[in-house]
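4.2 Preliminary Data

To establish feasibility before requesting continued support, the project team ran the inverse folding procedure on a target of 666 residues. The structure was first converted into the token representation described in Section 3, and no sequence information of any kind was made available to the design step. The complete token record follows.
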């Protein structure tokens, strides 16, 4: 079966969509601070889509932050520098090693701190979509009718800090009939000699440098919202069907975080790759697979939030990435709360909890520079745990102060990069209380609590009293933690100020208590036995998506140690064995899934389907037909299961032959 949102757990949805990005090796370790910054670019590029070529000239205005005699630039390893000239247009000596992603330029005379200079760099190379030296997606592709060059692809010379802001004038020459889309003020394109020239101007420092080009159909939002859609293959209905949702998200964020200086947004379809979306000032890029009759509102919300918390105000450097990735992910949860109420928020927080716990121990949030951008570990720690930290900060500060903080953050720091220390000071000023303990616990260390309850129920004159202790293992833990008492009547909830390994509590109820739960609505990041099961399965799903079947089986075995009859764990293990063509082990796992707890229910119909496929593959047609019939008897049509069962009742299942390329990718 095809894995989908319907059948994949919250982690696979949150992290699996973002796996496998081809990240330049210069991003894989924390970059050394650059001794200079770029103030402005005059960038002139010509695209040759038929040959995947780019030829560029970059005039770069640099400012030294400390004395230096040479400059090191980062540039995609597919590109080669041809010439570097100084302000007087005289050639400068430079060195670029073959396959390197940096080059060094010797300055004609040393710069002191605060001095500025200008260089001109001529370079050229290819972004061929067929050349994939590593498994995963490319951040830059030049192809007929469908080109994208993300800022992160380093397709023009850059300083080390990927979060650096700069002004830019971008001039693009491309084949006639193609449209270029980028951030900034666009001049009317000019066409001559079979070529089109487009110019985009950004006068103030911003996170610009993303370029898209293709044979686009332009669709304006009929509602009058400041939205323009650029479509490659998606029907016009995909745009019109999502315009109202986009407008609603933008209006909600404007109310909560303050209006954008320029609310115009280009929503651009790009050719498919494994990155889920990309945002730049005034741009939202969505691969073709994301376009349906309507666009996924959760994806839209976290992507649009970057217009506020990456474009309007941004992290100062890689170690501050939580301020963008974590906050944008939490903005998604806030929009779900707005559109679907408290139950929608609870589901979003449950999803975030599972995704955060998958790799929570990889690094503290404040050490984001140690994690590879776009990696599963980065998304789990910085984006998903980061979102939960923002939610917990809301619990500590209270709604009124928290939302004042978000509005003040976007307004006070607009147009520049912000450090974690600056955000923390603003949070303390807004809250009117010291929060060092909170940030030390959640940003600068790893580990989450696992709560236990010890309690006694007493009868009182007015009803009942539950007295006891909340226990957990972290010595310096301090958080307000909700404790809910379910009764024969209305439930009673009390927020307990948990501090240290043991905290007393006492809750009065009118009705007789029937059940006591700690934080049932996922307001605090924590472990429970049920979460340990789901996190282990989620880890396995992430490894499965990356083709790491051995590691996936190991993760599912850990899940079964928590709950031996978990149908989902057995089913997922069967999938991994099936992909390895270990049909005996796969059949055993699917049979265990049938005989397990059948949670979720769809594991039953799909286990019968897979058993039928295995029997067809191994030449046991009668047994296969029997399994397909059992699948039909469930009357469960999750992900088209019944149609698939009917199909293979009529003709045996045959496994598609693998190509050498597919085998090598695994």
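Position-by-position output of the design step:
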């Amino acid at each position: 079966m095809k894995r989908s949102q319907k059948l994949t757990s919250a982690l696979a949805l949150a992290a699996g969509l973002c796996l496998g990005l081809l990240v330049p090796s210069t991003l894989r370790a924390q970059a050394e601070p650059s001794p200079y910054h770029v103030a402005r670019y005059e960038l002139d590029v010509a695209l040759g889509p038929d040959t995947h070529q780019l030829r560029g000239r970059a005039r770069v205005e640099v400012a030294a932050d400390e004395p230096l005699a040479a400059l090191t630039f980062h540039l995609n390893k597919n590109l080669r520098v041809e010439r570097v000239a100084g302000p007087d247009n005289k050639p400068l000596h430079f060195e670029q090693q073959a396959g390197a992603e940096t080059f060094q330029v010797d300055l004609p005379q040393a710069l002191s701190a605060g001095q500025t200079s200008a260089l001109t760099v001529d370079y050229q190379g290819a972004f061929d979509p067929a050349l994939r030296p590593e498994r995963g997606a490319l951040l830059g592709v030049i192809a007929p009718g469908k080109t994208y060059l993300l800022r992160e692809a380093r397709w023009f010379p850059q300083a080390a800090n990927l979060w650096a802001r700069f002004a830019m004038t971008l001039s693009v020459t491309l084949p006639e009939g193609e449209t270029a889309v980028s951030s900034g003020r666009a001049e009317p394109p000019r066409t001559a000699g079979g070529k089109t020239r487009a110019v985009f101007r950004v006068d103030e420092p911003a996170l610009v440098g993303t370029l898209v080009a293709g044979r686009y159909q332009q669709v304006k939002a009929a509602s009058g919202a400041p939205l323009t859609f650029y479509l490659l293959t998606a029907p016009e209905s995909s745009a019109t069907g999502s315009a109202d949702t986009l407008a609603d998200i933008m209006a909600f964020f404007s109310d909560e975080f303050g209006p954008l200086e320029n609310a115009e947004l280009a929503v651009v379809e790009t050719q498919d790759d494994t990155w889920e979306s990309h945002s730049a000032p005034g741009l939202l890029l969505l691969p073709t697979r994301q376009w349906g009759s309507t666009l996924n509102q959760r994806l839209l919300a976290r992507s649009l939030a970057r217009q506020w918390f990456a474009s309007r105000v941004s992290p100062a450097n890689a170690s501050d990435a939580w301020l963008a990735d974590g906050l944008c992910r939490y903005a998604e949860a806030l929009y779900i709360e707005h559109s679907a109420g408290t139950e929608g928020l609870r589901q979003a927080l449950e999803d975030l909890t599972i995704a955060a716990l998958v790799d929570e121990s990889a690094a503290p949030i404040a050490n984001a520079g140690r994690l590879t951008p776009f990696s599963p570990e980065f998304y789990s720690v910085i984006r998903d745990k980061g979102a939960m930290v923002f939610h917990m900060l809301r619990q500590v500060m209270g709604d009124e102060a928290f939302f004042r903080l978000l509005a003040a953050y976007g307004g006070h720091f607009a147009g520049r990069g912000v450090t974690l220390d600056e955000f923390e000071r603003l949070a303390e000023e807004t809250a009117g209380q010291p929060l060092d303990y909170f940030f030390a616990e959640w940003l600068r260390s790893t580990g989450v609590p696992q709560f236990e309850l010890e309690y006694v129920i007493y009868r009182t004159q007015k009803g009942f009293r539950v007295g006891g202790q909340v226990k957990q293992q972290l010595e310096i833990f301090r958080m307000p933690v909700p404790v809910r008492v379910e009764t024969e009547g209305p439930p009673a909830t009390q927020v307990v100020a948990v501090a240290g390994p043991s905290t007393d509590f006492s809750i009065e109820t009118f009705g007789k208590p029937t059940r006591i739960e700690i934080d049932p609505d996922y307001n605090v990041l924590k472990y429970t036995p049920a979460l340990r099961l789901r996190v282990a399965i989620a880890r396995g799903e992430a490894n499965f998506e990356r083709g790491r079947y051995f590691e996936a089986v190991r993760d599912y075995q850990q899940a079964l140690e928590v709950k031996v009859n978990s149908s989902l764990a057995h089913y997922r293990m069967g999938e991994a064995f099936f992909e390895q063509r270990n049909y005996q082990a796969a059949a055993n796992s699917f049979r265990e899934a049938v005989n397990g707890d059948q949670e979720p229910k769809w594991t039953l119909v799909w286990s019968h389907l897979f058993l039928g496929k295995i029997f067809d593959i191994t030449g046991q047609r009668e047994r296969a037909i029997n399994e397909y019939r059992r699948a039909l008897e469930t009357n469960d049509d999750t992900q088209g299961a019944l149609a698939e069962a009917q199909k293979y009742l009529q003709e045996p299942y045959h496994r598609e032959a693998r190509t050498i390329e597919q085998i090598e990718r695994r």
